[in-house]
Design goal:
It is built from ten helices and six strands; from the N terminus they run E-H-H-E-H-H-E-H-H-E-H-E-H-E-H-H. By secondary structure, the protein is of the alpha/beta class. Strand 5, helix 8 and strand 6 form a beta-alpha-beta unit. The protein is globular and about 45 Å long. The model has no long low-confidence stretch (mean pLDDT 96).
């Protein structure tokens, strides 16, 4: 199954100021998330950003909010966005959800399992997920895959959203976010 830009939305889970420093690859995660958000904004993919207890963990990284023009930001206390019932109807109306964020084995995992339980086709962007340890990230990804989520990369997401080299933004997206991407 391929990502269909008419049926997909992007959900970015908890990439927040006071949490990013504890991750195993904070700078890489930051750069890859910024690139994914900027590219999907240019492709006009609907985007939702969740924040876990922002009073304690701070807001989403400012550079990510700036890259994700038009994204809706939702707050939660539950680890799962589904259990928190914070996801907007616009996200729930689409069949496919592309998910990335932190921590892979906690909030991302529980959100993905909840989305699968709702019958959604879920694509987890492996290189834009992070945890405090690589082992926890790997275990979270394995559990999501075993539950039926598709594990993908940023490049897979972008090429599937473009669909063809004839897409009007193909050259720009390819040069800016794929070939020229430093992360």
């Amino acid at each position: 199954m391929l990502i269909d830009p008419r049926q997909a939305t992007l959900l970015v889970v908890d990439i927040q100021e006071r949490l990013i420093g504890a991750m195993s690859d904070p700078e890489g995660t930051r750069a890859r998330a910024r690139g994914l958000l900027a590219a999907t904004a240019e492709l006009e993919l609907p985007t939702v950003i969740s924040e876990q207890y922002p009073k304690g963990l701070g807001p989403t990284l400012a550079e990510l909010k700036a890259a994700a023009t038009g994204a809706e930001i939702v707050e939660k206390l539950h680890f799962s966005c589904v259990a928190a019932e914070c996801l907007p109807a616009s996200l729930l109306a689409r069949e496919q959800v592309i998910v990335c964020g932190m921590e892979t084995h906690v909030c991302v995992l529980q959100t993905v399992l909840g989305l699968l339980g709702l019958g959604k086709q879920v694509f987890v962007v492996e290189d834009v997920c992070d945890s405090r340890t690589p082992a926890n990230k790997a275990a979270g990804l394995a559990r999501m895959r075993d539950a039926g989520a598709q594990i993908v990369t940023r490049e897979m997401v972008l090429f599937e959203l473009l669909g063809s080299a004839s897409h009007p933004l193909f050259r720009h997206i390819s040069k800016t976010y794929i070939v020229g991407d430093p992360s």
